[in-house]
Amino acid sequence: MPLAAALALALPGAAHPLPGVPSFDAASSPVQGTLKVPERVYAGYLAIFEFESQSSLSGAQVLLQRRGKTSWLTVVKARFRQRTELIAKLPAGRQRLRVRIETAAGTVDLPEQTLTVRRGGRRATSGRDDGSYAARTPPPNSTLRFKVANDGTTLRDFKASLTAFCVGPTLSQNRFVEAFAVLGSARIAPDGAVTGLLETSSGARVLLTGRLRNRRFQGEVNMQFSTCSGSRKLDAVRR
Asked: CA distances (Å), 68 to each of 74, 111, 119, 181, in order?
């Protein structure tokens, strides 16, 4: 079963501070959120954790932390959104996790939870999955190609065309453009799940997610660059 813990924390206003907890310039209603993790998390493989909240915390940062031997270690940090993606790798074993919210006014740690990270297991993919892949039903004038290699453990040379929406300086300058999402390689988890991430110094980002099963890959690619963003559903088979 997926692990999901509902986390609720009242962020006090200046009139009613809690001892030892920094005050926030926020509404008096509690800030609530839910931390969700994938059904399976494997050691050394990227996993997507989602922190969902309807709260309004402009400029805040969300940190995913795990407990080390003597202190809490930040695994990944991202700008606060109503749905904040936290993409990270964890070591094997029983891990104590928590979410920390940071603003200019202070820091609050939400209650911790425990997650067991798998060391591995029987693989759902093998050398039978190796080869070149393309769209199962290619849309006109589109590109989708990649390879599976190393006995079904690596996805590489990924390239997919997609349509991105770009926000212009004015409303009339908003536009759609064709873009290409490129990813050098991504590891394929024992259960066939794929999470691949590319982030550049210029701020561009490509996120590939999906699953390889019986020589068929189904998933999605998301791309952000400059003021543009776009995504595409993927359905590819070995050729």
From this structure: 10, 16, 18, 36
Same domain, 146 and 189: yes
Same domain, 61 and 136: no
- As a whole number of angstroms, the distance between CA 62 and CA 162 comes to 29
Burial class (CB in 10 A: 0-12, 13-18, 19+), 1: exposed
Whether residue 187 has pLDDT greater than 70: yes
Threshold 0.90, pTM exceeds: no
Residue 206: give the domain boundaries. 127-238
Residues 188 and 87 placed together within one structural domain of the fold: no
- State pLDDT tens for residues 7-51: 333 333 333 333 333 333 333 335 667 899 888 999 999 999 999
Q: Which of 78, 20, 45, 58 is nearest to 196 (CA)?
A: 45
